[in-house]
Amino acid sequence: MMPKLKSSLRVARHSFGGAVSAGVVVLISINAPAQNLFEADYGSGQILEITPGGAQNLFASGLNQPLGLAFDNAGNLFEADANSGNVYEFTPGGAQSAFASGLGRPNALAFDNAGNLFVADGISGDVYEFTPGGAQSTFASGLSQPLGLAFDNAGNLFVSDYNSDDIYKLAPGGAQSTFASGLSGPWGLAFDSTGNLFEADSLSGNIYEFTPGGVQSTFASGLDHPVGLAFDQADNLFEGDFNSGNIYEFTSGGGQTLFASGLNQPTLLAFQGLPLPAPEPSAMTLLAAGAIALLAGSRRSRCSIRNGTRR
Fold first, then answer.
1. CB of 245 within 8 A of CB of 227?
2. Are 84 and 10 in a shared domain?
3. 13, 105, 146, 285: which has the fewest C-beta neighbours closer than 10 Å?
């Protein structure tokens, strides 16, 4: 759902040296809806859509071990279907099509700012890049079992490598460096609004936080095979807990609550994209009319003053 644009019209009267002119001012407010959370339900082969209140709705079914989820800028949802080797695209209405096929085991997905899709392949150990038109190239190779992807604000791609217990940083040109090591089954990755990286450490049951400089701290512990991570617009962190079938919500201070339960091996998560719409044409027309009216009124006032008259 797109945000609704509400416009109200007011008449403002402006005084110019005692002269009064009338103009139209348009006041526009945008009410952005809350985001829905999408969850790859690995055990059931489904994608569930969960409202902010926790209501679960079926978005797609019949998938074969769904893992990675990512939204493009147009609001289309992409899903890494691990066991089929496909990446599927879903329109906001749920219509499904194959975006890419013939992959080994697509695990994680992430979009860069240019709209290119990056796919972590767990069998080949490669990270593939797909243009919006579907053209495929190899962005990085030689990884052991990449399971998580996330971009920072500078366009660097971070990859969690499950078997090597490392997180790698890939520069936009593909240059690779080790960002963190000594982890225990690193899986889902997500950045908060300040640029800190969060990692779901599946085998230790912890969520680790890393500063941009790589300083590590424990954000949460005692989880049961944490896999998926995603931040909402308020910087609350959501975690898919594979073994318990729960999704937990964490505030920025670390407070934990149960957000959803009864899931079948929840894996990776993604929040519904909320691109802002262009202003309604009627609102733009009114805004332009108001600006013209104000300008015309001020010009008439100045002319009246120069001619020694007042209106």
1. no
2. no
3. 13
Q: What is the pLDDT of residues 65-75, one digit of tens each?
A: 999 999 999 99
Structure-block tokens of residue 199:
């990692």
> Cβ(105)–Cβ(82) under 8 Å?
yes
User: Please, which pLDDT band fits residue 33 given cuts at 50, 70 and 90?
Assistant: low
- d(CA 100, CA 141) in angstroms, rounded, equals 18
Note whether 21 and 158 are same-domain residues.
no
Prediction pTM value: 0.79
Whether 276 is in a domain gets the answer no
Burial status of residue 294 (CB atoms within 10 A of its CB: 0-12, 13-18, 19 or more): middle
